[in-house]
Write a structure and sequence with these properties.
heterodimer; A: TIM Barrel; eight-stranded parallel beta sheet; 12 helices; B: mainly beta; Rieske Iron-sulfur Protein; four-stranded antiparallel beta sheet; 10 strands; 0% helix; 41% strand; globular; ACMSD (chain A); Amidohydro-rel (chain A)
Chain lengths: 358, 143
């Protein structure tokens, strides 16, 4: 059945553009800086997925380019991100210029050429003013459907420091997407730096537990009542205990955070979405149990995590999902997560194979 | 109903909380100004003795960073989990808006945009008769 349904892939990665290929998108000053300082030869890579690592390349896509990968699983729309290392630069002006160049490159090199791709406005959490300016600069291009930040920041995502970014997201109907990963100057663990990549990788999902609690506790969902948040590559098997701990604790300390006028689980409903891959319940039984504990599949978004090796076999959809839930998981939930998709021409053409947004 | 004298008004301090045993029952007796309230001295959530809790107000908010204290001293916080009980009604206020009922008078819910919970502590009618605090218990409660 799922083979006939419209699919919106919420986590689809574009290959990182070389710095030298960003030169056409930069002004004279930054072109000169990059060339004279030989920065054009710097890879600026975020290193969880080195390009030639076996973990990076899923054999399901062997020999396929981006369009072939979209064909492979019948993807109707893929929300693409280019997780470029320029986000980790300290120089705020160079960082802003290069991030703008990355976003412009995505639009010109990818969105213009593959009508199934939608874009992310990639921003730095370090400089909300620059990030808001970037959102304002690109918001008119409706192919951008989300604002993309990395999970590990120097300041917690719930903090008011970021609220101008969230306000801009809400204003323009852009989802706030938070992707696993960080700046490599912030530990992936709240208890300090691990020694091995093994630890770093496992700890990524724990960061999202902190982010979820912070967004809820600091009142982001009350302050921005139309803001939608998407966690990318967060896993989700941790949700039951985290949400339960939020609810339980809130009952006893409600007076400290009186803007939480309902249980946190009720505040989060319809506001936070998580991608299916990597699917962290180990098997179909555990997946069904997780879904039971979180009260359904409304927050799950289909994702392939292209081109990364998160699944084996012929379909990114894990076993254990009910047929009834597939329409929502494959597309209907994404229409609730991404306000701009409601008016997307490809979505409109898909018509009745889609669940109507609530 | 049987009336039991449980305290002398003059000896009961304002905002005082006492555990009282009467007719085989344990009550949590509370004074707020000239008013007295009594709850059965067991938290309906986890069984703690409410008389070991503290009187508190509650807080309303229009949004993050906005705090509007209200119902000063009219909430009894359970010593175990901090759940709040309205001393006037025994109603827990630590749960969703969806469980709110319309059973309260306007006076009782002044500042009442808050959520009421599923748990209700048993309340016992109290009156002041001259110099004494009197509770009214059903006859069947006398053991």
């Amino acid at each position: 059945m799922s083979g006939h349904l419209f699919r919106i892939d919420a986590d689809f990665h574009l290959p990182q553009v070389a710095i030298s290929d960003l030169l056409p998108y930069l002004n004279e000053h930054w072109r000169q800086q990059l060339i004279e300082r030989e920065i054009t030869s710097s890879p600026f890579r975020l290193t969880s997925y080195p390009p030639n690592s076996p973990l990076t390349l899923n054999p399901a896509y062997e020999g396929l380019d981006v369009s072939g990968a979209l064909d492979r699983f019948g993807t109707g729309i893929a929300i693409a991100s280019m997780l470029h290392g320029v986000v980790a630069l300290h120089n705020p002006d160079m960082r802003a210029a290069l991030m703008s160049a990355v976003n412009d490159h995505v639009a010109k090199a990818w969105l213009d050429n593959e009508p199934r791709l939608r874009g992310s406005i990639y921003v730095s959490g370090d400089d909300p003013a620059a990030s808001v300016a970037e959102i304002e600069r690109l918001a008119g291009d409706k192919r951008f459907v989300q604002v993309l930040m990395l999970a590990m920041q120097e300041i917690h995502h719930g903090n008011r420091h970021y609220w101008p970014i969230y306000e801009a997201c809400q204003k323009h109907g852009l989802a706030l997407a938070i992707h696993a990963g960080g700046l490599y100057r912030v530990p992936p663990s709240v208890s300090g730096w691990p020694s091995y990549q093994f630890e770093d990788y496992v700890m990524q999902s724990m960061v999202f537990e902190n982010i979820l609690t912070g967004l809820a506790g600091e009142g982001v969902f009350q302050k921005f009542p139309d803001l939608k948040v998407v966690f990318l590559e967060s896993g989700f098997a941790w949700l039951p205990t985290t949400i339960w701990r939020n609810d339980k604790t809130w009952r006893g300390v409600r007076q400290e955070v009186p803007w939480l006028d309902r249980k946190p689980s009720e505040i989060l409903a319809g506001r936070v979405f998580v991608t299916l891959q990597p699917c962290d319940p180990p098997g179909p039984d555990e997946l069904r149990q997780t879904i039971k504990h979180i009260g359904g599949t409304d927050m799950l978004l289909y994702s392939s995590d292209y081109p990364h090796r998160q699944f084996t076999g012929d379909d990114p959809l894990p076993e254990g999902l009910s047929e009834d839930a597939l329409v929502g998981i494959l597309a209907g939930n994404a229409l609730r997560a991404y306000p701009r998709l409601a008016d997307d021409p490809v979505v409109r053409r898909a018509g009745e194979t889609l669940e109507a947004p609530a | 109903m049987t009336r039991y004298v449980v305290a002398e008004v003059a000896e009961f301090p304002d905002k005082g909380i006492r555990r009282i045993e009467v007719a085989g029952r344990e009550l949590c007796l509370i004074r707020l100004g000239d008013e007295f309230f009594a709850l059965m001295d067991v938290c309906p959530h986890g069984g703690a003795k409410l008389s070991a809790g503290r009187l508190s107000g509650t807080v309303e908010s229009e949004g993050p960073g906005d705090y509007r204290p209200c119902r000063t001293s009219e909430m009894l916080k359970c010593p175990w989990h901090g759940w709040e009980y309205d001393v006037r009604t025994g109603q827990s206020w630590s749960d969703p808006k969806s469980t709110r009922t319309r059973a309260y008078s306007a006076e009782a819910i002044a500042g009442g945009e808050l959520a009421k919970g599923p748990y209700v502590a048993d309340t016992v009618p109290v009156e002041v008769d001259g110099n004494y605090v009197v509770v009214n218990l059903p006859v069947s409660a006398a053991r």
